[in-house]
Design a protein that fits this description.
Number of domains: 2
Strand order of the largest sheet: 6-7-8-9-11-10
CATH topology of the largest domain: Purple Acid Phosphatase, chain A, domain 2
Number of strands: 27
Helix content: 10-25%
Radius of gyration: 23 Å
Shape: globular
Strand content: 35-45%
CATH class of the largest domain: Alpha Beta
Number of helices: 8
Largest sheet: 6 strands, mixed
Length: 437
């Protein structure tokens, strides 16, 4: 691939620039890390993908805006390579999105998009599959609360398998149940069929885009084109192919292509409605935007009234957000934020209650982690004054973060904080919330 580029110094995306540069947003998955290696494989025989820092500018020049870096090769050069990759992407005004930085919020012509990137393939660092975890549930919950559309980019499946596995289908159904609107997969290196699952489009594998492999099937790829109009979105796949002895992708039209209609190429999926309503409190629409701050992604909440920006919050490590009448009268914002506390000497979830007015967010209450170390919490869908909390099994007086036991507690707002309720009440509200979900 590098020899082909060095020979002509032509951008690999020269033929695709007209498509990319007319799009409002272009998202890609970057497999590899910025840096150098003395050999092309590690001691275990696994290929290492090193990227010259100078080549990152090609992505920006091609028209990319957001780069997913959650895959099995981002740590090929260790933590230093990962950090170099993030740094070089930011230098070129490209937005790197990892699982840690998800959901990543951005607005495109009034549409709030949330992007979540997931990797399920083992890699060189200490890897834990994030599927079916509380952490991923929280990310999807926050995304569906604040965004019109939730896009999940997931690295999964088996290499060179041209049909989705049972585990991929099960994972897709779970992700959609948690709030995903569109799922786009990678890793198999061959195109896998797209399907509708529970009314949502799933592109199981886009195959290869710009990648050096010898098998004929790996020369094919898909670009997902998402069009939004009048509260509806539509997806289609644009076929790409690389010619023999080349690794540059080109738009590929099958022999059955009808110039009067691109249906044979794209086969658009049915138009689907998106969530056109933003979270609103006291007349202010809350529009999130993600920002990098010291290698961490935080979220700024922007308060809009009549499409005019009135205020902006400070960057927050936000985990959960809900509008609720905790006192039974006025709307408040309940939030979970990841902050340090000397009580448990760690960065963990802390509950906050905010009032909202023309000046922005006004802190009304904050607690360390309620009665016990906190794993999750949410406002009851059945009663806006009830907070349901999932705690670790240990206590602040005897902290043990290896404790795998959990306890559930229901709390009620009393104007000054949350008071615990009987266990029977907690089980009632948790059971009701589970049934509603």
């Amino acid at each position: 691939m590098k020899k082909e580029y060095d020979a002509g110094r032509k951008s690999p995306w020269e033929d695709l620039k007209p498509l990319f540069q007319t799009a409002d947003l272009v998202i890609g998955n970057l497999e590899g890390a910025v840096g150098t290696v003395s050999e092309t494989v590690d001691p275990d025989g696994i290929p290492l993908f090193a990227i010259d820092s100078a080549d990152i500018s090609l992505l920006a020049d091609a028209g990319f805006h957001v780069i997913g870096i959650e895959n099995n090769h981002i740590y090929d050069l260790g933590i230093t390579g990962y950090q170099n990759t993030v740094h070089q992407l930011l230098k070129k005004d490209l937005h790197p999105v990892s699982f840690e930085h998800s959901p990543y919020f951005l607005s495109v012509k009034g549409l709030v998009l949330a992007i979540i990137t997931i990797n399920t393939v083992p890699r060189k660092n200490n890897f834990n599959n994030p599927l079916y975890t509380i952490e991923l549930e929280q990310k999807l919950r926050l995304a569906r609360t604040l965004a019109n559309l939730v896009v999940v980019s997931i690295h999964w499946g088996s290499e060179l398998l041209d049909w989705p596995s049972k585990s991929q289908r099960e994972a897709a159904a779970w992700l959609i149940a948690q709030g995903a609107d569109i799922i786009v997969g990678s890793h198999p290196h061959v195109v896998q069929n797209r399907e509708m699952i529970d009314g949502k489009p799933v592109f199981f594998s886009l195959g290869n885009h710009l990648f050096d492999q010898k098998y004929p099937a790996t020369k094919n790829g898909l670009i997902v084109e998402l069009t939004v109009k009048n509260g509806q979105y539509q997806c289609k796949g644009i076929h790409t192919r690389t010619k023999p002895h080349s690794f540059y992708p080109e738009i590929f039209y099958p022999e059955t292509f009808d110039p009067e209609s691109d249906a044979s190429v794209s086969n658009p999926l049915p138009s689907l409605s998106y969530n056109s309503k933003l979270l609103n409190i006291n007349g202010y629409d809350l529009v999130p935007v993600s920002v990098f701050e010291q290698d961490k992604t935080k979220i700024i909440l922007q308060g809009y009234r009549n499409d005019r920006l009135i205020w902006r919050s400070h960057p927050m490590p936000l985990v959960y957000l809900a509008v609720s009448q905790l006192d039974g009268k006025e709307d408040s914002l309940f939030a979970l934020l990841n902050y340090y506390s000397p009580i448990d000497k760690g960065i963990n979830m802390r509950p906050y209650v905010y009032g909202v007015d023309s000046q922005g967010l006004q802190a009304k209450w904050r607690g360390s982690a309620l009665a016990f170390p906190l794993l999750d919490a949410f406002i009851s869908p059945q009663n806006p004054r009830i907070l349901c909390a999932l705690h670790r099994g240990d206590a602040f007086i005897a902290l043990d973060d290896t404790n795998t036991q959990t306890r559930i507690v229901a709390y009620e707002w009393n104007g000054f904080g949350f008071k615990g309720l009987p266990d029977s009440v907690a089980h009632h509200y948790f059971h009701a919330a589970h049934l509603e979900k």
